[in-house]
Automatic annotation (TrEMBL):
SUPFAM superfamilies, per the entry: S-adenosyl-L-methionine-dependent methyltransferases
Name assigned to this protein: Methyltransferase type 11 domain-containing protein
Boundaries of every Methyltransferase type domain copy: 34-130
Keywords attached to this entry: Transferase
């Protein structure tokens, strides 16, 4: 992966925290990968060189254009971007070897339709990486409450959105076991899971993500994040597979 150019410094934190995905869910160089909710594209950077082709689907035009410019400037190849609704994927069934569904299921309007679409386009025997929000939002809500009490700290939680549906808002809140069951009810088979990190989202308050950059600390965090208390982490990432028959 090429070093980030200064104009893409806004991605540095996301890129650092995205290191957990290939550690947990490695891709193969011959795989055709679907990345739904592509956003600014940090997963394409962290997986660069480890897929045959990645197709990123994103509903927001501005993010799509920003991601397209970043990929071209960074020299990332074999990534094709598609603007569209992830609940109506424009692909034939049994197309992809792997699916990345990172930080998206809680945002879509109809999670069950979304999951059915992912199941449809994934080939039999294919794999999916999906994430579920765990303690991240609870921590942010708690800190925002404290911030409102301890003026002049003005930080407020940003994941809530009032009014009509918006792709950046969390539209659904469920415990981790409920999310996993909804995926299994679609036909997927659960393989494994772990938290992305057990540290709270301190980066929201100006603290660098040292828990990802210090190697021994990251190794310890990774071990705890794989234990039975993983649901107390920021986010839980899970691997599911599509049965062969």
């Amino acid at each position: 992966m090429n070093p980030l150019k200064p104009e893409f410094a806004y991605l540095s934190g996301k890129l650092l925290s995205s290191r957990v995905y290939p550690e947990f869910f490695p891709l193969q160089k011959n795989e055709h990968v679907l990345n739904v909710g592509f956003g600014d594209g940090p997963q394409a950077l962290v997986y660069d060189g480890n897929f045959q082709e990645m197709i990123g689907v994103e509903i927001q035009t501005d993010r799509l254009e920003r991601a397209r410019h970043m990929l071209q400037s960074q020299g990332v190849e074999r990534v094709r971007l598609v603007e569209g609704n992830v609940e109506q994927l424009p692909f034939e069934s049994d197309t992809f070897d792997a699916v990345l569904a990172i930080d998206i299921v809680e945002h879509v309007q109809h999670p069950d339709i979304f999951l059915q679409e992912l199941f449809r386009v994934l080939r039999p025997g294919g794999r999916m990486l999906i994430t579920f929000p765990a303690m991240h939002d609870h921590f942010e809500d708690a800190m925002s409450f404290v911030g409102r009490l301890l003026k002049p700290w003005k930080h407020r939680a940003q994941h809530h959105h009032e009014g009509p549906w918006h792709p950046d808002a969390h539209a659904h809140v469920h415990p981790i076991p409920v999310w996993k069951k909804r995926v299994e009810d679609t036909g997927f088979v659960f393989v494994k899971s772990r938290a992305t990190t057990m540290f709270p989202p301190l980066h929201l308050y100006g603290i660098s993500r040292f828990w990802f950059s210090i190697e021994w600390l990251h190794a310890l965090d990774r071990k705890i994040a794989s234990s039975r208390i993983q649901n107390l982490g920021q986010t839980v990432m899970a691997e599911f597979s599509k049965p062969l028959a």
